[in-house]
Design goal:
By secondary structure, the protein is of the alpha+beta class. It has two helices and five strands; from the N terminus they run αββββαβ.
Length: about 70
């Protein structure tokens, strides 16, 4: 059951910053519409989605990294 007293703690998390190749993105979250996808927003405000599997592969290959 949801505890309203915990709302601020649960809702106030800062979005992570990730870098893929030379582009920095704000990680908006993960969605599941049949496929698990990561939502990313670049500095120009363009929102992109990629599968979670692709994102994890980029992390494992060193092509993506968390900056904070």
């Amino acid at each position: 059951m949801f505890n309203p007293a915990m709302k601020d703690r649960l809702m106030s998390t800062k979005n992570k910053t990730v870098q893929i190749d030379s582009t920095k993105y704000e990680m908006l979250g993960v969605i599941n519409d049949g496929d698990s996808k990561v939502r990313l927003k670049d500095s120009a405000g363009k929102v992109e989605e990629m599968t979670s599997d692709s994102f994890i592969t980029l992390l494992n290959e060193g092509k993506a990294k968390y900056l904070d």
